[in-house]
Design a protein that fits this description.
The complex is a heterodimer of chains A (about 950) and B (about 200). Chain A is α+β, with helices and mostly antiparallel strands and about 950 residues long. Among the domains of chain A are: about 190 residues, Alpha Horseshoe (Leucine-rich Repeat Variant), CATH 1.25.10; about 25 residues, no CATH class; about 180 residues, Coatomer, gamma subunit, appendage domain (Immunoglobulin-like), CATH 2.60.40; about 120 residues, 2-Layer Sandwich (TATA-Binding Protein), CATH 3.30.310. Chain A is about 55% helix and about 15% strand. In chain A, α17 runs antiparallel to α18, α23 runs antiparallel to α24 and α25 packs antiparallel against α26. Chain A is globular. In chain A, strands 1, 2, 3, 4, 6 and 8 form a six-stranded antiparallel beta sheet that branches. In chain A, strands 12, 13, 14, 15, 16 and 17 form a six-stranded antiparallel beta sheet that branches. Chain B is an alpha/beta fold and about 200 residues long. Chain B has one domain: 3-Layer(aba) Sandwich (Rossmann fold), CATH 3.40.50.300. Helix content of chain B is about 35%, strand content about 25%. Chain B has seven helices and seven strands; from the N terminus they run αβαββααβαβαβαβ. A seven-stranded mixed beta sheet of chain B has the order 2-3-1-4-5-6-7, with helices on both faces. Chain B is globular, with a radius of gyration of 16 Å. The C terminus of chain B is likely disordered. Classes of the chains: A alpha+beta (about 950), B alpha/beta (about 200). The interface between A and B is medium-sized, with 19 and 19 residues.
Chain lengths: ~950, ~200
């Protein structure tokens, strides 16, 4: 009822609002299909200009909003746009240019407009010329470039600045996309463009020239020298020049060389007196970052920068502040300014400046002044938006690490910020700071924990609560008064949601360690027993698990007492581990358990031995670094979907049970038992589309000399039985594999899965890689499902399956080495057994997916660098694995560097092993 | 009978008020002289243009009250797959042949048949021009051309064959007249072979 009335009250206000801002986007509700349909009018015999313009604008809006067109859609619409070249209307032509640029990436055969664009490049309209040049360079490919080069070269020296700049910028574009070998031949034209009266052209010419020559240090310094002497008009070019000089200086390390660059340095100094603030700031920034520069120089520069702090433009103020910030960072022991000068900044209307000012002061503050300053900013701090507060919290954090002795006042500051209103990111930053301080400054532990305990009393973020509870479980028992924390934790059990309650139960159980007194122990047992009545499964499960553990420990103690009668009771060395580290792969374990429950035969105990052991690689990847989210390990077991990333995909669960105890099945079959236990079993692969007549999946068991393919076949046809079901594979295209044995299924009935096997022998020294066509052959007999009557006249039938594929991962066993040894192995193999290769993984848009694919492909363990953010642009992982040979294993280690580039991931892979041939084999397998 | 007179009257009236517009797609192997021919249509002068067309050219030509919109398509291998996109909906497909380059007759024939069998281009009349008739050794006899390119086998559209020379302006006016006349009468499928010399 209450909600209903609330809704009624809300209604009029909403209406009012929409009346107030009547400005509705003209693009509201634009939809891809409709726009593509609309674009068909471009093909009409008589063009309706107005409509074409509208359609193009909508298309551009869509693409600009990030709508993805498929290749065929883009090509279709691109070709209809090319027909618009028949109109010479400038507005339309401009939109055509823009659209072609947007579609150039997705559409095929964009080269078709080359001729039309070349015509525009040669036209008299400067607007056409400049724009067409830019588009032309976008759509051209490395073969075509030589055909358009002539025009570009002419344009660079064109009188019109817009045209010249367009050609210069296009040159940069060509270079960036590796189409620009011709650009290197334009040096004389570009040098000529440097003299162009327009500053813009000068800037672009300098940028291009530098881009061409950046790897030739001598050429760059000559260029810089010439320009520094002759002076430059463009402020942008000036800034660019300063950056070039800084790079040259940065590349020379010793002091003598710096003298060699004295004239450059003088140029930068002269820039400090440049009329443009931008150049001054750039110069100042450069000077303070020159390595080994004298204090006087820095001081002089900082004075100039300080004068810019009073400029009206907030951009300049911000830039100046950033330079000061950098100065305090680079020369921390120097006082570059008086903190009290900064009071003005606290009232600056630009919040970014306020934040930066505070962070700068904090960074450069002396120990004595910190407390006073913190008090001063406290009120201002509360007014700032979260993202800025995060920055300040980080500054405070680094300050504590710098002055560990004044942690008390800083922690007070953090504590009060925890009590403030704030979003998740802000709170997390504060909590992160606490976590790190706790480890860095042991004496602060008590206060930190107290602050965090108070925080979870009123925390609306279950994620943070769970993290803190985990920490309390870890640290609490070691503190002087564990009882205090138990109270806080138990409060959570009463008041929070299921995810937090479960975390709290685990945390509570951690207090049952060897140091706990019997009184605490009893108290905890009582508390845990209450949790047995919780409404949530997970909470109850955890509670009963820990109670059971506790019971066991008590029993053991009792028995110990019995044995050592008369002596002091010995405290048991057994402690409750939150969850013992299971050697099983969790999805398999869950699959088995689900299976067990389904059978409903509880007389027989669940046998954990049947669960396949996890591959180490799997675990390494699941391990989560402590610093980021220590509670993840719990989450994985909690099976709540609060955090999205909880362990199991449903499809996995579904198919897992059928692969259960495949090892024991292998040993049941006489022919296979003699092979022993497989070194490795791959994950299962489906060979049929879902919902077809037959479902076939298979796994590969790797042995030293052979591979056993195990197929599970399920028939979904009720009115058939199949006999003599066997798998036929065609190995002709794979060298080094021989069929040894084929074990068919003698009878396959509807719905009951059966196993067929194919044993393949691997010839010595071969590691066969490739795809093998495969089909299943059988004798079909009709059956009437209701009576079970079988028509004895069977007929032969075959059913085509997906190809089987063999890869290097089938011969690779994951490495079981600790991190420390990777480097030793790496050095031991040495560079003589090294193979290095670069791959473009265009199928992968992000580094994590590429990393997982490479790991699966190689079948190796990620020794280091398993975790990577999906937004990372660079990442390094170390892989390790053992290649199976007839008698032994060959150790292989890889150093993989992932770089994200455009839409693809580039992989630089370096492989080392005992044997160069093996390194080459691994490397070539990826290609 | 009456209705056809009525229609003619209507189209005549239309032509008074609206400008007639006609779309052509000119295709053929590279170096057949497509761009040169189109330039000749447009400007009336012969220029020996040796730069290959990268992609396509678009020319608008006014002739005898008709505006010809001409898609002059590049003849290089990589552009041939795109011909079809520009042929859709045109009034006439013009195929230009280098009548001297006998070695590539076979390729030209294959490309022509390939493009004509596209369902989207069914019924569009074909104008087959054997260019460069001024050069010695050129294939100029229309009957021979029809035989070499098996043009009789094209049943689903109107086909016209002319031997032309852009350089000497042989037959150019005839072709233009054919095109203009062709626009005025409604296209009917009767598999007529009109041959010019």
């Amino acid at each position: 009822m209450a909600t209903l009335s609330l809704g009624k009250d809300d209604l009029p206000t909403i209406k009012l609002k929409s009346e107030d801002d009547l400005v509705v986007s003209p693009f509201l509700g634009i939809e891809k299909g409709a726009v593509l349909q609309e674009c068909r009018i471009f093909n009409d015999l008589h063009l309706k200009l107005r409509k074409c313009v509208d359609a193009l604008v909508r298309l551009l809006y869509l693409v600009g909003q990030g709508e993805k067109l498929s290749s065929s859609e883009a090509t279709e619409v691109f070709f209809s746009i090319t027909k618009l070249f028949q109109s010479n209307e400038p507005t339309l032509r401009r939109l055509v240019y823009l659209s072609i640029k947007e579609l150039a990436g997705a559409a095929d055969e964009v080269i078709i407009v080359t001729n039309c664009l070349m015509k525009d490049v040669n036209s008299r309209e400067d607007m056409y010329r400049a724009n067409a040049t830019r588009v032309l360079c976008r759509i051209t490919d490395s073969q075509m470039v030589s055909q358009i080069e002539r025009y570009l070269k002419q344009e660079i020296v064109d009188r019109n600045p817009v045209v010249a700049s367009a050609a210069l910028v296009s040159g940069q574009h060509l270079l960036l996309h590796n189409k620009g070998d011709v650009v290197r031949r334009w040096i004389s034209e570009i040098t000529q463009a440097l003299e162009h009266p327009s500053p813009m052209v000068q800037y672009h010419a300098l940028a291009l020239l530098y881009q061409i020559r950046q790897h030739d240090r001598l050429a760059v310094s000559k260029l810089v020298q010439g320009l520094a002497r002759s002076g430059i008009r463009s402020a942008f070019a000036c800034c660019l020049l300063i950056r070039c000089i800084l790079r040259i200086i940065g590349e020379t390390s010793s002091n003598e060389n710096i003298n060699e660059y004295r004239p450059f340095f003088e140029f930068i100094e002269s820039c400090l007196r440049h009329p443009s603030d931008m150049v001054v700031c750039e110069a100042a920034r450069a000077i303070i970052s020159v390595p080994g520069i004298s204090r006087e120089e820095v001081k002089k520069t900082v004075t100039i920068v300080n004068s810019h702090l009073l400029r009206r433009s907030s951009v300049v103020r911000h830039a100046a502040l950033r330079i000061l910030n950098k100065a305090t960072y680079l020369y921390p022991n120097q006082q570059w300014f008086d903190p009290f000068d900064f009071e003005d900044f606290l009232h600056d209307k630009n919040r970014a400046i306020t934040t930066l000012a505070i962070a700068t002061v904090l960074r450069g503050a002396r120990e004595q002044t910190i407390e006073g300053f913190l008090k001063k900013i406290q009120s201002k701090f509360m007014e700032l938006p979260d993202e800025f507060r995060v920055q300040i919290v980080e500054a405070v954090h680094s300050l504590v690490l710098k002055y560990p002795n004044s942690y008390y006042s800083l922690l007070n500051f953090l504590g009060s910020s925890l009590r403030e209103e704030g979003g998740f990111d802000f709170k997390r930053a504060v909590v992160d700071a606490y976590f790190s301080l706790l480890n860095e400054i042991p004496q602060s532990k008590e206060i930190c924990l107290t602050h965090l305990c108070e925080f979870i009393e009123d925390c609306e973020h279950p994620f943070l609560s769970a993290r803190i509870l985990h920490l309390l479980g870890q640290e609490g028992p070691k503190m002087s008064q564990p009882g205090k924390y138990i109270r806080y934790i138990y409060n959570r059990i009463i008041l929070e949601n299921a995810a937090v309650r479960a975390a709290a139960v685990s945390s509570l159980a951690r207090f049952l360690d060897e140091n706990s007194t019997s009184k605490t122990r009893k108290a905890i047992v009582v508390l845990l027993k209450q949790c047995l009545h919780d409404s949530d499964d997970e909470v109850r499960d955890r509670a009963s698990y820990f109670l059971h553990q506790c019971q066991r420990i008590t029993d053991e103690e009792n028995s110990l007492i019995k044995i050592d009668e008369g002596e002091e009771p010995v405290s048991s060395p057994t402690t409750i581990k939150e969850f013992p580290h299971l050697p099983y792969s969790l999805p398999e374990l869950e699959g088995n358990l689900v299976d067990y429950l389904k059978r409903e035969d509880f007389n027989e105990e669940f046998n954990v031995v049947n669960v396949p052991k996890a591959e180490k690689g799997f675990e390494a990847a699941e391990q989560i670094p402590m610093t980021s989210v220590p509670v993840k390990a719990e989450e994985a077991n909690m099976n709540t979907d609060n955090w999205g990333n909880v362990s199991l995909a449903p499809s996995q669960v579904k198919e897992m049970p059928s692969w259960r105890d495949s090892n024991s099945r292998l040993s049941e079959i006489e022919e296979l038992a003699s092979l022993g236990i497989p070194l490795k079993t791959s994950s299962s692969v489906e060979l049929t589309e879902p919902e077809t007549e037959y479902n076939v999946t298979y796994v590969k068991h790797t042995y030293r000399q052979c591979i056993v393919l195990e197929f599970i076949i399920v028939s979904t046809l009720e009115d058939q039985i199949l006999e003599n079901v066997h798998i036929i594979t065609d190995l002709s295209s794979i060298e080094g594999l021989q069929l040894v044995k084929n074990i068919p299924v003698s009878l396959l009935k509807y719905g009951s899965p059966q196993h067929a096997f194919v044993v393949l022998q691997r010839l010595e020294g071969f590691y066969p890689i490739g795809d093998a066509p495969c089909e299943v052959r059988y004798v079909v007999k009709e059956m009437i499902p209701s009576t079970g009557e079988v028509d004895e006249r069977g007929f032969d039938e075959e059913y085509k399956l997906e190809d089987l594929s063999f890869g290097i991962s089938d011969y690779m066993v994951p490495l079981q080495q600790s991190n420390a040894r990777f480097k030793d192995i790496w050095d031991k193999f040495g560079s003589q057994n090294e193979v290095r290769e670069t791959f473009a993984l265009s199928m992968h848009q992000s580094i994590p997916s590429a990393l997982n694919a490479v790991r699966d492909f190689l079948g190796m363990t990620v020794v280091e660098g398993a975790q990577v953010s999906p937004y990372a642009t660079q990442h390094v992982s170390l892989f390790g694995g053992s290649l199976v040979t007839e008698a032994d294993f060959i150790l292989v280690v890889c150093y993989a560097e992932f770089v994200k580039e455009n839409e693809a991931v580039i992989l630089n892979l370096t492989v080392r092993s005992e044997d160069l041939n093996v390194s080459e084999l691994v490397c070539s397998a990826i290609a | 009978m009456l209705s056809s007179i009525w229609e003619q009257l209507l189209s005549w009236l239309k032509s008074l008020f609206f400008e007639q517009e006609m779309e052509l797609a000119v295709l053929g192997l590279q170096n057949a002289g497509k761009t040169t021919l189109v330039n000749l249509f447009a400007t009336g002068t012969f220029t020996e243009d040796r730069i290959p067309t990268v992609g396509f050219n678009l020319r608008k030509v006014r002739k005898g009250g008709v505006t010809l919109k001409v898609w002059d398509l590049g003849g290089q291998q990589r552009f041939r797959s795109m011909w079809e996109r520009y042929c859709r909906g045109v009034n006439v497909i013009v195929f230009v042949l280098d009548a001297v380059d006998k070695e590539r007759f076979h390729t030209a024939k294959l490309e022509l048949l390939e493009i004509l069998q596209r369902p989207s281009l069914a019924n569009i009349p074909l104008l087959f021009l054997a260019n460069k008739s001024d050069l010695p050794g050129a294939l100029v006899n229309p009957q021979e051309i029809i035989q070499t390119f098996d043009l009789k086998s094209i049943k689903d559209r109107e086909v016209a064959v002319y031997s032309v020379s852009a350089k000497n302006r042989t037959n150019i006016d005839t072709v233009l007249r054919w095109l203009i006349v062709h626009n005025k009468k409604p296209a009917n499928v009767n598999n007529q072979m009109s041959n010019g010399v």
